[in-house]
Amino acid sequence: MSDALPEPDCVPGAPHPRDTKRLIGQDAAETSFLEAYNTGRLHHGWLMIGPRGTGKATLAYRITRFLLSQSMDDSGMFGAPGKPTSLETDPEHPVARRIAAGADPSLFVLRRGGAGSTESDQKKSLEAGKFAKDIRVDDVRKLNGFFNFSSAEGGRRVVIVDAADEMNMQAANALLKRLEEPPENATLLLISHQPSRLLPTIRSRCRELRLSPLGDNDMANALSQALPDTDLDQGALTALTSGSVGEAIRMTNLSGPAIYAELVSLLATMPRMDRARALRLADAAAQRGAEDKLDMLVDLIALILARLARAGTLGVTPTPEATKGEGDMIARLSPSPHHARRWAQTAQDVDAKLRHGRAVNLDPAALILDTLRHISQAAT
User: Fold this and answer.
1) How many C-beta neighbours within 10 Å does residue 146 have?
2) Of 38, 43, 44, 209, which residue is least crowded by CB atoms under 10 Å?
3) Pairwise CA distance, residues 361 & 380, whole Å
4) 207-210, strands of its sheet edge to edge
5) In this predicted structure, what is the pLDDT of residue 117?
6) Could you list the mean pLDDT of each consecutive 10-residue stretch along the chain, which spans 380 residues?
7) Residue 356 and residue 324: Cα distance in Å, rounded?
8) How does DSSP assign 153-172, residue by residue?
């Protein structure tokens, strides 16, 4: 892409969804969209739902390339053309090349911009890789210029919203007006990791495409595509990420498997917590500039508590293990439904504690250490 600025809709270390060569394991969603297109029931608004990292944005770009490369003339030169059987677009097609370069005038990507109130501040923020916390109404209003300009060119127009969950209320209401009165030949593709956060009226004006977590075989293929050089255990990555390739990439980049292994080793010492080990873990995540690793540690604490609760409820330890020794640790700390209920409650308490502590800017190391103490008490 010609614009070298960091992008908020790209997982660091992974190809941008527009550059991902294949979409793996989501045939049902692709077939559903293609059927709507071939039967003349192409809705103007599509809501792509599913866990983060399962290919929603990759599908959005596949659909965009497909739509913008299709002729608007259904009759063809020698009568009705055959119906397309795939969303695949030749990578050498002019549309595919323009989208890869971020230069197709018929596509608008609505996403978070730079932080700051002025255009200059926002540009500086983008250059530093700092983004606004949400999609703002001014971002949505840029659609006015896009539709006014592109209407003169004729043909289809596509808008990708990545992610719709990140719109603030004003932005959501502004986009809703577009969904209520869509421009001619426009298709809006909304990506949503948490559809419960969307306005019900937005959901009601879109047709859903649901993407599912990848199964073991599809996950292995997707990881081979996204992380061809990794030497990490793919089974462990799958267990830690619940079939999300995007999360697997994020976890690999931030040493997630190693952090999780340290958490498992620490919980294995409970209820007599190894304080020195706990301090090292907390201090490592609280270093200046380590915000991403702190986020990862918080996510992994939630994950290990969830796996404890689930194992006790089902009466079986997770298979495969996410790291060596996890099975023995879980079998000892959560051997029954009674223990599972305790871990489920602990997960809720810890989540509330961490949310509050981070909202009021408590010292991260102290917050993590206090959280680990709370978990140790639950292990008694």
Assistant:
1) 18
2) 38
3) 30
4) 107-110, 157-162, 186-192, 45-49, 207-210
5) 75
6) 65 81 91 95 96 92 96 54 89 96 94 81 74 92 88 80 95 96 94 94 96 84 77 79 84 90 96 92 82 90 95 90 94 96 96 91 93 95
7) 32
8) T-S-EEEEEETGGGB-HHHH
Sole residue written with tokens 């298979």: 319
* Nearby residues of 22 by Cβ (< 8 Å), 6 or more positions away: 225
Tokens of 272: 């007599």
Backbone phi and psi for residue 209, each to the nearest 5 degrees, phi listed first: -120, 115
Looking only at Cα atoms, what is the longest distance across the chain? 79
Task: Tell me how far apart the alpha carbons of residues 297 and 17 are, in angstroms, rounded to a whole number.
Answer: 26
Fold (topology level) of 17-210: Rossmann fold (3.40.50)
Separation of alpha carbons 18 and 57, rounded Å: 8
In the chain, DSSP assigns E strands to 45-49, 107-110, 157-162, 186-192, 207-210
**What local confidence, expressed as pLDDT, does residue 4 receive?**
57
